[in-house]
């Protein structure tokens, strides 16, 4: 294996080494291979045009008294994909470590172009793109950040190893406080005195399609005439040292759980390797046929493996029974226009807890919650723009690579909903869970009380509504004359695109202990009142605040974006 170390300083303006596929040198260039975007590009790449609650079309729910069957989605921000040499790239993979998200990009076809974005996500209301690195010598297909704060990536290189034709590329960067290092290599009298970067060309296969961490090392999955390979990358001046490899054709993805490595091959199906000592194949399961060169991923769900299977949706496989044990068919949005077969395909799957996320191309993002029998108890399609090509769930956050960029979403579930309230405010433990009605109107002289997660399109309160938990309102909320609403928990309303509003009309009162988040306008009419109860409440208003003469805003609260 030919290993060369390339160095450069990020403090200067860097140009890429341009390398056409038909004129590749046998030896990697000493020129700088990566470039850092300027501040203007970074500041304009993230937009908040659709921030807030987004629509969620329910497909099927087996509802009972369990509040876990109700959940909602909000969009935090969207990230426009970078352009390299005037060519728009597509997002390929996401990893999250601490307060940062890392996104890789490539270009389909014979052109080798790639990028990596670093996003600071610690402030929910203001994620910031803090770095963007681009390259003209490689597609970047996958990455991860290890426990030692090292960014490791793989892809397909325009350069090859001494005429061998092998093009799998790997690189690592020693991060500085989550960001790419300001200085990668400094050389004095041919002695490397500081090394924060290593680039390696020419590993087995035509493209590194996936890379994942294992015990301080890395496993690379190379597709098409490829292999699974385990590497060391000790850092400093050392490169990637191959420990063991297993050649397998047409590899697509892998998922690791303890010492069990599940690998998806377009030739050999789903394979189970014990990786405690080398790669030992323990079982193999035939899967649905995979379209040539199509993107497919797999993910562990408990002791089972989910496989994205194109038009078939997602298959559920068990290595214990060595068989397929279930399936999650691809569902269409009930209001969607006709989508071609080519556009409606499950490209990727991701799991978190008992949630399953299916990136279904033009059919959107399908979200399911499964019971212990692998049966959906709740399912719906998030209404996002563009096709869903890749999905990665990390904690509460969902990262969706679409045809127009990367979307950062957050799932809102019963776990977010508090079940307690300040003393003498609400009797939360006495309230039944919300039953999932999509539009809720409380009529005059009536009292309705709920808990859990309330996900509605429109809310009209003309009587009294008591609620403990998380209230998600896609469109508008209106408190009619003499209406009264008491909330312990959170109110999330609207998004920046539709600019819906919360209206507190004359004679009505909204009392809140918790969070009010409005992506739109707040209108408190004369003799209307918004009252914060107890301590620690917060309010965010994305639009305008209008308090008419005689309207009241009372209590203690934190103004999250200086609207009051």
Note the topology:
Elements (H helix, E strand, L loop, with lengths): L2 E2 L30 E2 L2 H7 E2 L4 E2 L2 E6 L10 E8 L3 E2 L2 E2 L1 E8 L2 E7 L7 E7 L7 E8 L2 E8 L4 E8 L10 E7 L10 E4 L2 E5 L1 E7 L3 E8 L2 E7 L2 E7 L8 E8 L2 E7 L2 E6 L3 E6 L5 E6 L12 E4 L2 E5 L5 E5 L4 E6 L15 E9 L2 E7 L3 E6 L5 E7 L5 E7 L2 E6 L2 E8 L26 E4 L4 E10 L1 E4 L2 E10 L3 E3 L4 E10 L6 E5 L4 E10 L1 E5 L4 E4 L4 E5 L3 E3 L4 E3 L2 E3 L5
Parallel strand pairs: 38-40, 39-41, 40-42, 41-43, 42-44, 43-45, 44-46, 45-47, 45-48, 46-49, 47-50, 48-51
Antiparallel strand pairs: 1-18, 2-12, 3-6, 4-6, 5-34, 6-37, 7-8, 9-10, 10-11, 11-12, 13-14, 14-15, 15-18, 16-17, 19-20, 20-21, 21-22, 23-24, 24-25, 25-26, 27-28, 28-29, 29-30, 31-32, 32-33, 33-34, 35-36, 36-37
What does this structure look like?
The protein is mainly β and 564 residues long. It has a domain at 417-559. It contains 1 helix and 51 strands. Strands 39, 41, 43, 45, 47, 48, 50 and 51 form an 8-stranded parallel sheet that branches. The N and C termini lie far apart (63 Å).
**Global morphology:** globular
The Rg value, from CA coordinates, equals 26 Å
First-last Cα distance: 63 Å
How much of the polypeptide forms β-strand, as a percent range? over 45%
Class based on secondary structure composition and strand pairing: mainly beta
The low-pLDDT segments are 1-31
Helix share of residues? Answer: under 10%
The chain-level mean pLDDT equals: 83
Largest sheet: 8 strands, parallel
Count of separate DSSP helical elements: 1
Q: Kindly state the number of beta strands.
A: 51
């Amino acid at each position: 294996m030919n290993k060369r170390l390339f160095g450069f300083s990020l403090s200067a303006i860097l140009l890429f080494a341009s390398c056409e596929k038909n004129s590749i040198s046998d030896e990697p260039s000493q020129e700088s291979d990566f470039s850092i975007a300027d501040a203007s590009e970074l500041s304009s790449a993230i937009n908040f045009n659709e921030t807030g609650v987004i629509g969620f079309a329910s497909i099927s729910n087996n509802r009972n008294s369990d509040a876990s069957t109700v959940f909602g989605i909000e969009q935090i921000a969207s990230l426009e994909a970078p352009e390299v040499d005037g060519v728009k790239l597509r997002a390929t993979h996401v990893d999250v470590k601490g307060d940062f998200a890392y996104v890789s990009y490539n270009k389909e076809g014979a052109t080798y172009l790639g990028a990596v974005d670093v996003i600071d996500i610690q402030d929910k209301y203001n994620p910031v793109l803090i770095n963007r690195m681009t390259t003209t010598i490689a597609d970047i297909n996958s990455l991860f950040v290890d426990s030692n704060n090292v960014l490791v990536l793989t892809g397909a290189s325009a350069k090859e190893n001494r005429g061998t034709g092998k093009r799998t590329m790997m690189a690592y960067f020693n991060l500085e406080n989550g960001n790419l290092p300001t200085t990668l290599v400094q050389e004095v009298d041919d002695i490397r005195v500081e090394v924060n970067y290593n680039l390696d060309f020419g590993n087995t296969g035509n493209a590194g399609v996936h890379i994942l961490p294992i015990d301080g090392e890395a496993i690379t999955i190379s597709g098409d005439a490829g292999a699974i390979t385990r590497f060391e990358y000790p850092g400093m001046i050392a490169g990637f040292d191959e420990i063991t490899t297993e050649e397998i054709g047409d590899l697509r993805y892998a998922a690791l759980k303890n010492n069990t490595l599940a690998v998806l091959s377009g030739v050999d199906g789903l394979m189970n390797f014990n990786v405690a000592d080398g790669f030992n194949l323990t079982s193999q399961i035939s899967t649905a046929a995979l379209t040539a060169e199509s993107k497919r991923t797999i993910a562990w769900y408990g002791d089972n493996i989910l496989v994205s299977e194109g038009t078939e949706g997602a298959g559920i496989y068990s290595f214990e029974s060595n068989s397929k044990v279930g399936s999650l068919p691809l569902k269409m949005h009930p209001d969607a226009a006709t989508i071609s077969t080519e556009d409606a395909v499950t490209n990727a799957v991701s799991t978190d807890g008992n949630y399953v996320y299916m990136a279904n191309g033009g059919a959107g993002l399908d979200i399911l919650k499964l019971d212990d029998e692998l049966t959906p108890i709740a399912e719906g399609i998030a209404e996002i723009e563009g096709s869903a090509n890749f999905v990665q769930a990390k904690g509460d956050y969902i990262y969706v690579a679409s045809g127009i960029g990367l979307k950062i979403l957050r799932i809102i579930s019963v776990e977010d909903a508090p079940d307690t309230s300040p003393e003498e405010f609400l009797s939360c433990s006495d309230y039944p869970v919300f039953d999932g009605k999509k539009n809720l109107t409380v009529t005059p002289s009536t009292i309705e009380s709920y808990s859990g997660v309330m996900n509605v399109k429109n809310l009209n309160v003309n009587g009294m509504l008591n609620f403990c938990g998380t209230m998600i309102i896609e469109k508008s909320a209106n408190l009619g004359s003499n209406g009264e609403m008491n909330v312990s928990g959170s109110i999330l309303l609207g998004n920046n695109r539709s600019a819906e509003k919360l209206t507190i009309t004359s004679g009505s009162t909204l009392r809140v202990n918790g969070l009010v988040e409005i992506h739109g306008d707040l209108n408190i009419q004369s003799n209307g009142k918004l009252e914060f109860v107890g301590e620690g409440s917060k309010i965010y208003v994305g639009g305008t605040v209008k308090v008419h003469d005689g309207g009241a805003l009372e209590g203690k609260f934190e103004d999250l974006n200086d609207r009051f």
